[in-house]
User: Which sequence fits this backbone?
């Protein structure tokens, strides 16, 4: 990419791709410079603003990152990574992770990744009640179309096999375990 940029120094897409590669390599200063140059070449490059926000956040410059995420959203209100970046900017002093995600959902309530992340945060929020969790689960479920259930013979329990590497020690275990424990054993068998 460096050679390609040398041959086409005014290409915002090459600079953007270089920024992504540098970010993936952990070279945050160089990635920041590449994203800033992309924005100089094309100020309307919403993805570059969002990715610059990520780099700034990882560099500990949260206020600057927040500005970049807001610029990206202003340029492209449907750019989900900008909202995700904004939601992940947890103010270490005053705002908890759940409140930050709620603030982002106030801006754009139809973001399933943010609502899912909010659910995970609520499981670790000591003051979140069961009613809060239930309400948020309902809101998340309402985001997706209902699939009609197929009729099945009730002559035997449904056998369900579940395999996941996430069941060792992962958030997925904590989501799934209560479902498995509360199941109607006469209706379905877990293997």
Assistant:
């Amino acid at each position: 990419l460096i050679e390609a940029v040398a041959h086409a120094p005014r290409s915002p897409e090459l600079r953007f791709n270089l920024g992504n590669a540098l970010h993936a390599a952990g070279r945050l200063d160089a990635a920041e410079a590449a994203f800033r140059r992309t924005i100089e070449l094309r100020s309307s490059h919403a993805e570059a603003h969002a990715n610059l926000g990520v780099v700034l956040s990882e560099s500990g410059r949260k206020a600057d990152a927040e500005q970049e995420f807001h610029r990206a959203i202003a340029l492209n209100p449907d750019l989900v990574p900008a909202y995700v970046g904004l939601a992940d900017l947890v103010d270490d002093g005053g705002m908890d992770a759940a409140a930050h995600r709620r603030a982002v959902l106030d801006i754009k309530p139809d973001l399933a990744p943010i609502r899912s992340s909010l659910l995970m945060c609520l499981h670790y929020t000591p003051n979140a009640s069961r009613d809060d969790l239930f309400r948020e689960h309902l809101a998340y479920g309402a985001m997706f179309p209902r699939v009609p259930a197929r009729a099945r013979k009730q002559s035997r329990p449904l056998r369900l096999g579940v395999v996941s590497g996430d069941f060792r020690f992962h958030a997925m275990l904590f989501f799934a375990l209560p479902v498995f424990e509360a199941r109607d054993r006469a209706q379905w068998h877990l293997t």
